[in-house]
Every structure is written in C-alpha cells, then in structure tokens.
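Exercise 7b. Backbone tokens:
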C-alpha cells in the first residue's frame, strides 16, 4: 500500500524518502495518504512527551501533506498546524523552501500562489516570531516559485522584517521594492524592529535595518522620499513609543534636508498635540527648523505653539516657551506668542508658570490692547504673587473663584466574593481560562480547587468527564507525560487536575512538609524559598492529595480579602468529621489564620461540639478570641547587614524586617520573621505567589507586608506582581505600620506604570479605610531615595495622582515625612533626581490643606538660594509653610 511506505519514512524521520515516494503516487495513492495523515499526527502527538513532536518528525509530515492534499486551503491549513510551530525550524527555512518547491513542482503556479497567500494570512503579528518564521519561508518560497506578487498580509511584511530578510543583503532581496512601502503601513513592523539596534549590537556581523535602508536611500536604490514620507505617515497614524522607536531612528539617520523638512512642516505640526514625547520632540525640532527658514506662517505657528504648550511633558513645554520667546519680536508675532503663552498659566508646574509669566511681561510693551485683555483674563487663576506680576505689566487682574476640591479619597468598597462554581461544566470552563492566564488571581485559584475537591468527592467520574475535553484539547501532556516538571507541581490548578486523572501521581507531601518544617530549624543558611512560598507549596500538595478523598476544603475563603466566616468554618469541619477525615496540617493552619478579627460567639459555642483533633484545635483557637497583633519592625538600611538578637543577618535588599510572634505552634513559626536560625536572605526573590501572601494572613496585614518587603524591595525596576500584591494587602485587615509603608513606597516607585497605578489605588484604599501609614511611607520613600534605590520622579507622579483623587492630606503627610530623610540624606539634597517634582507637589498639597510649620532641612536648602529649579521649588515650599 502507498501509505505503508510513507508511514515508515515518517517514522524514520527521512524527509527525502517521503518526497521521493510522494512523487511516485497516483491520484488514489495521494488521496489515501492525505486521508491517513491527520490520524498519524494525532497518534504521534498523543505519544509524545508534553504533546510536542520530537525533532525530526515535522518536515516529513509537512512535505507528505503538501504533496498529497488536494486543495490550496487544506494544504495551507496542514502546513500551519499548531504541532509544526517550533522554534528550531527557523534555522531550516532554506530547506523548507527547497523541499516545498520540489514537492509542489507539478502543481500549477496559481495554486502555489494561492497556498502562499493563505499561509501568509495565517501569520499573526502577535505570534512568537521564532515559531512561525518557518511559515513565512514557505509562503515566500511558494510566491517566488509561482512568480507572483508578494502576499498583502501584514504578517508577511512583519516576518520579512523580523527574520525573513537579511539586512546585510537587502539590496538583492527579491521582495525589497514591493515591501519597503509596506513597512510603513503594516501593523506590527515597529514592534518587531523596536530592538533592531540592540540586536545588531549583540550580533556583531549584522547591520540594522535602519542603517541598511538609509544606505540604500543614499545610493538611490530606494527613493529617499518613500522613506521620509513613510516615517512621517507612520508617526501620524499614532502608536506607542515602543512601536514608533524604529521609525524615529530611521528618520534621524535619513537626516532630512531643509527643503524636505519645509515641504512636510504641516505634517510635523500635526504631530505636536498627541504624538509620544520622543516623536513630538522630533516634530518640534522640525517645525523650529522650518521656522528658521521662514516657512511657518502665523496660522501654522499658532497651531503648533498651542499644541506644544498643552503637552504634559515639562521638557517639551520649556523648549516651546524658549522658541516662542526668542522668535516673538524677530518674526513680528508678539500677539500670537502671548496668546499661546497664556495656556501655560494653568499648568501644574509652578516653575513653568513663572517662566510663562516672565515671557508675557517681557513682551507686554508690544502687545495690542485686545491681547492684553486676553492675558489678564488668563492670569486670573494664577497664584497671588504671579497674578500681581501680570497686573503690574498689563493692568488689574481679578482672581477667579476657587473650584471645590475632593475632600478625601473615594470610599472603600470591598471586592465582591465570586459565587462558588456551580457545576462540573462550569468547572471545565474555569479550567480553560486558568490554563491561559499567566498569573491567575489567587482567589480564582482557591475557588477552582475548592469546587474541584467537592465535585470529585461527589462524583469523581463525572468530574473527569467534564474536564476531559479541555485537558485533551489544551493540556494533553497533563495526563500523558511520564512525569510533571516541578514548576507544574507547584501550580495548584494543574497539579490538582493531574491528580484527578492520574490518582497515583506522587504528591510529594512528605517532601513539602519536610521543606517547610526543616526550614524553621536550619542554622546559618541562605533563604532561597521564603517560608510563605514553602507553606503554599505544602498546602497545594495537600489539596491535590485531597481530590476525590475529602468533601470540602475548610480554608477556602468566604470574602475577597481572604477571611473565612467562623460559622462556615465550623460547618466544614463537621462535614469532614462526618466523612471520617481531617484537614491537612497546612489546611488547618490556613483556616485558623483566615479567621476574622471579630468572631461570632455562636460559632465559638458550636465549635465545642467538634470531636476530632483538628476540630478541637479549631475550637480552642476560636475560644481564645482574636490573636494579638505582633510587634513588627521594618527599616531601610544603609548597609546590607543587621543584627537581630544574636544573629548577624545578610540583607541584599538593605531592608530589615522583623516580626516578633511568640510561641512554638505552626502558626507562630509561620508568622515569625526572619525564620529562626536564618542568617542570609539571598538575592531578591521572584515568586509567582507574592500576591497570595496577604490572603494567607488576612487579619494581620503587617505580617504579610513584613515578609514581602525584603524580597520585593529589590524589584522596583521589574514587573513582578507588585501592584496586585499591594492591592491585596490594602484589602486585608489589621494595623498598618512601617512594613506596609515601606512596601507601598517601593511599589509607588516601580518602573511599570500599571504597578504604580495599582499602588495609587492601594494608597487610596488604605486612606479611605483610615489605616494608611502615611508618615511611615514618607520615611521609607525618603530613605530609599536618599540611598539612590528608587527614582523619585516616579513616586512624585504617583503621589500627584493620589492627591488629585482626594488624598491631599495624606500625600502632604508622606512628603513632609520624606523631605528630612532626603535633604539630610547621603550626599545632601543635590544627589536625588526628581526632588524638584516632589517639592512642587508638596507646595500644591500644602497649599490645598493649609499646612504650616517649618521643616529645618527644607529651610537650609531654601536659604542657600540659586537659580536651579531645585532652589526655586524649595524656596517656594518654604515660603508657603512659613507664611502667616
């Protein structure tokens, strides 16, 4: 039979043999092979570890399908199967082209071009380029062999730029003329080439795309106008700085001439209002250059000036003010300049307002009466001293009525607890979602495993049947692999489902318990895995072992903050006793830690009826009432070492965090920090469970914060769940002190805007609940900034957002506590970048709250004088605080 020989060649990974046999097939033989291939692929996939085909099988399968399947659509679908997406095939692009040319040589050119277009249409710009680059090579090869025009799909252009073409040989590329204009039209090109320069620096023999195109423009191989117009059009389409970075680099390398800039000045002016700051800066330089050539008329000037002065970036506004000031009289446009400058009277930066006022006063003598009236009207919202300066030059200015400001942050509304999963079918839907969530919310995972345990206890076969389609389609390796990787074992969702389908899976409970308990008694060793990580790993293994064996998980939270209602907890223990079982050691400890700070007496009375050891331990815990809050100490240090008792600790994060929790119980050991005997904290820790920690101790916020700080403090430039962690901490209960304040300070300084936004929300939540440790946060910000560990500009921007939301008083308290630490810190006030921004925000919030009182360190800086922005902002804040 035709199929037997081809199947043997596939099993032997012999692509050449497959192609030779395919070439000899007649029509029925091709049909037989085409019909058998999908089943063969499924068979091989099911037998493979992790569901990934072994290296060497891909090309024989692909060529067998390309040579036997009839329709162009079907062939394209076969060649683009998910099973053939593998990174290492990118190194065999030329082989794929050659083999595909051979195996499809007898097909009509129109058919090959159709297959190429269909493959190109499947190139998604969001795909991982290394995995789908082989598809590009196949589409490119078929296009060239058919003598067809390149496919129009954006993905084809993106892949051409991100691996299909060689920048070192671009002049000879067969797609150059057709695809260069498309570089500026196809979505995804900018993102694909954003790291073009750094890639070339790493690969010393490779040129950048921007350099290659600029050289081709210089030689006339590619028209300069095509490239310059393409860049400008791409800027006008908009995008993120990341997406536009490469086009800006190309534009700079092309060095447009005066004539080229003047011809496009209107387009550059249109970029000024809303383009990313780097593009707006490029456009402003072009407009100013055209203005020097006297190619900017007054209408375009007013449009450009208004746009740049409304920008949020102080640097651009300052540059714009300089341009307007220097050209006002030279170009005979004083009135237009003054009309534009008044826009800055309303900006947040007092320094820019002062500069705008000075420019207005400087040119007042040349202003028309009508323009003078406009200046006086715009000046009504200026602070008193600046308003008086305008009045002296333009005439009396009436102060505008003050707008009411928010009196406080928005009220705190607790997050709603999602309803329990109601059926095995819903459980399967949730599993599909969690499979494709990189960092699932801890509450969603708790909800899932709780439902899995309950449904599996009630009907284990029905639960398997409900989950099986999702497992087979999206995670076949979960049941077919000989073993799971350790990272999968640490995933509660995956490991629990694995144990549902493979009950004999080793749960490593003893190993996890030993890791946790032995960690409490080690002496002088490095903490590689924090104790809360080890505790969560133990609980996860207990949950996996409980699937199909226990009716309920007692520690499953009943509130979004992580608490368990005491009455519900007692009822769950009763169910376990009725089933003749008890919770695991970690499960019981977690249930106790989740008891809220207020306990219903009825639950205490009901718990006395529990008879199991676990039930009696819970009854005693509830009868003892709310646990006292432990002593917590958290301090930002200058040195990476500190002494605690008789221990000398090594602290790479330079933050000392201590929780004194007396006792020898599991809970006492879990809460006490650092662990007994530990002396070395190792390096900052990346943990996928950081955001889970506040839910471990939801009634004692400071315990979780104290254990988080040493690990997260070193990650302010990384994006590793800091925002989600801070939000979870704000939802927890209990006192807030130096640990919460220090963690909040670190998160407000995070490099990623989304984490800073979450930190602002957490600040507002803590403020609304009346538990924001504002002074402690300020001290931590000050010390971190003084030691050069955070960027103060990020903090000032985040605090400004919090103030705008109503937290004026708390923001001022934070700033007032931070300033002495910064101004008297190492290197003095001049060592901290971003300090003027913080001082300006301090002036605004102090004025809003009516704060008064001298800050000695601020007085010292203000008294030194000077013309720098730091000196001006310090003097301005000091004047406001000491005014009578």
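Sequence design result:
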């Amino acid at each position: 039979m035709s199929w037997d020989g081809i199947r043997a060649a596939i099993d032997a990974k012999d692509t050449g043999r497959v192609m030779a046999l395919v070439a000899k097939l007649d029509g029925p033989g091709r049909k037989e092979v085409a019909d058998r291939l999908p089943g063969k692929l499924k068979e091989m996939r099911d037998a493979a570890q992790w569901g990934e085909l072994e290296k060497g099988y891909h090309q024989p399968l692909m060529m067998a399908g390309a040579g036997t399947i009839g329709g162009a659509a079907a062939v394209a679908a076969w060649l683009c199967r998910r099973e053939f997406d593998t990174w290492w095939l990118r190194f065999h692009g030329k082989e794929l082209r050659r083999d595909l040319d051979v195996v499809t040589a007898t097909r009509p050119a129109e058919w090959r071009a159709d297959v190429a277009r269909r493959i190109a249409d499947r190139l998604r710009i969001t795909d991982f380029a290394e995995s789908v680059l082989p598809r590009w090579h196949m589409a490119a090869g078929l296009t060239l062999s058919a003598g067809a025009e390149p496919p129009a799909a954006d993905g084809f252009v993106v892949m051409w730029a991100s691996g299909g073409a060689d920048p070192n040989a671009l002049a000879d590329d067969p797609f150059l003329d057709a695809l260069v204009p498309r570089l500026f039209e196809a979505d995804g090109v900018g993102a694909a080439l954003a790291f073009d320069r750094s890639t070339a620096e790493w690969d010393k023999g490779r040129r950048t795309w921007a350099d290659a195109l600029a050289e081709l423009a210089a030689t006339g191989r590619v028209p300069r106008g095509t490239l310059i117009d393409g860049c400008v059009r791409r800027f006008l389409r908009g995008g993120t700085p990341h997406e536009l970075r490469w086009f800006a680099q190309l534009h700079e390398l092309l060095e447009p001439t005066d004539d080229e800039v003047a011809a496009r000045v209107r387009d550059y002016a249109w970029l000024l209002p809303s383009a990313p700051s780097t593009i707006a800066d490029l456009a402003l330089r072009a407009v100013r250059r055209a203005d020097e050539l006297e190619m900017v008329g007054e209408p375009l000037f007013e449009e450009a000036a208004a746009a740049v002065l409304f920008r949020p970036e102080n640097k651009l506004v300052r540059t714009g003010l300089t341009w307007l000031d220097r050209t006002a009289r030279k170009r005979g446009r004083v009135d237009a300049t003054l009309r534009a400058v008044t826009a800055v009277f309303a900006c947040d930066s007092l320094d820019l307002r002062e500069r705008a006022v000075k420019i207005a006063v400087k040119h007042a003598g040349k202003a028309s009466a009508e323009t003078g009236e406009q200046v006086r009207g715009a000046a009504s919202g200026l602070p008193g001293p600046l308003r008086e300066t305008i009045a002296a030059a333009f005439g009396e200015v009436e102060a505008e009525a003050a707008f009411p400001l928010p009196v406080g942050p928005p009220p705190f509304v607790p997050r709603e607890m999602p309803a329990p999963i109601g059926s095995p079918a819903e459980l399967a839907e949730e599993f599909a979602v969690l499979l494709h969530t990189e960092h699932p919310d801890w509450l969603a995972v708790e909800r899932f495993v709780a439902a899995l345990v309950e449904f599996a206890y009630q009907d284990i076969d029905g639960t398997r049947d409900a989950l099986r389609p999702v497992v087979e389609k999206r995670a076949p390796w979960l049941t077919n692999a000989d073993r799971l990787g350790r990272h999968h074992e640490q995933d509660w969702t995956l490991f629990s489902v694995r144990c549902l389908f493979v009950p004999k899976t080793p749960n490593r409970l003893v190993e996890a318990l030993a890791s946790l308990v032995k960690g409490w008694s080690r002496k002088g060793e490095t903490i590689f895995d924090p104790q809360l990580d080890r505790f969560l790993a133990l609980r996860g293994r207990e949950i996996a072992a409980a699937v199909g064996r226990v009716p309920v998980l007692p520690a499953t939270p009943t509130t979004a903050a992580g608490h368990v209602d005491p009455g519900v907890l007692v009822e769950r223990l009763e169910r376990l006793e009725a089933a003749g079982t008890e919770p695991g050691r970690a499960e019981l400890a977690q249930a106790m830690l989740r008891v809220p700070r207020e306990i219903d007496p009825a639950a205490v009375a009901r718990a006395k009826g529990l008879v199991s050891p676990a039930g009696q331990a819970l009854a005693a815990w509830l009868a003892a009432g709310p646990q006292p809050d432990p002593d917590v100490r958290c301090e930002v240090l200058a040195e990476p070492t500190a002494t605690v008792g008789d221990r000398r600790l090594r602290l790479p994060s330079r933050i000392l965090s201590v929780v004194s929790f007396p006792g020898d119980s599991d809970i006492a050991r879990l809460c006490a920090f650092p662990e007994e005997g530990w002396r070395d904290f190792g390096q900052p820790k990346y943990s996928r469970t950081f955001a889970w920690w506040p839910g471990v101790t939801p009634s004692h916020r400071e315990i979780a914060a104290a254990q988080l700080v040493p690990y997260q403090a070193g990650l302010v430039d990384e994006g590793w769940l800091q925002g989600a962690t801070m939000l979870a901490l704000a939802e927890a209960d209990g006192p807030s002190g130096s640990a919460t304040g220090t963690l909040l300070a670190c998160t407000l300084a995070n490099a990623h805007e989304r984490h800073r936004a979450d930190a602002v929300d957490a600040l507002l939540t803590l403020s609304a609940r009346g538990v924001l440790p504002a002074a402690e946060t300020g001290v931590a910000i000050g010390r971190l900034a003084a030691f050069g560990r955070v960027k103060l500009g990020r903090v000032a921007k985040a605090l400004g957002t919090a103030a705008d939301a109503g937290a004026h008083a708390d923001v001022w308290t934070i700033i007032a506590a931070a300033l002495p630490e910064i101004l008297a810190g190492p290197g003095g006030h001049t060592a901290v970048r971003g300090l003027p921004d913080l001082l300006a925000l301090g002036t605004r919030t102090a004025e809003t709250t009516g704060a008064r009182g001298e800050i000695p360190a601020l007085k010292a800086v203000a008294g030194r004088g000077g013309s720098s922005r730091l000196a001006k902002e310090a003097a301005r804040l000091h004047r406001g605080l000491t005014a009578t």
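Instructor comment: The longest helix spans residues 27-47. Residues 10 and 60 are 5 Å apart (CA to CA).
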